[in-house]
Design a protein that fits this description.
single chain, 80 residues, mainly alpha, 0% strand
Length: 80
């Protein structure tokens, strides 16, 4: 019984860590996109393009790569 509780606790802690990582990457992506728009309105085009690309990569990593593929599959496996 103790190993089952330990296994579930470790799995939940891992799921929480991935969820936090996904949230941090998504937040960083949103901040980067906002910075890009602000820089674009001031006329600093090369730097705004850099922040747009960086934001898109962070959003993809947070939402799709970790959020959907890792957190989603782990959560579904825990529920079944």
């Amino acid at each position: 019984m103790a190993s089952g509780v330990t296994e579930i606790t470790i799995e939940l802690a891992t799921l929480l860590a991935y969820t936090l990582l996904s949230g941090l990457l998504t937040y960083a992506g949103i901040l980067s996109e906002r910075t890009a728009v602000e820089l674009l309105t001031t006329g600093v085009t090369p730097l705004s393009v850099w922040f747009l690309v960086l934001g898109a990569i962070a959003l993809y990593g947070g939402v799709v790569a970790i959020g959907r593929d890792v957190v989603g599959t782990r959560l579904l496996s825990l529920l079944h």
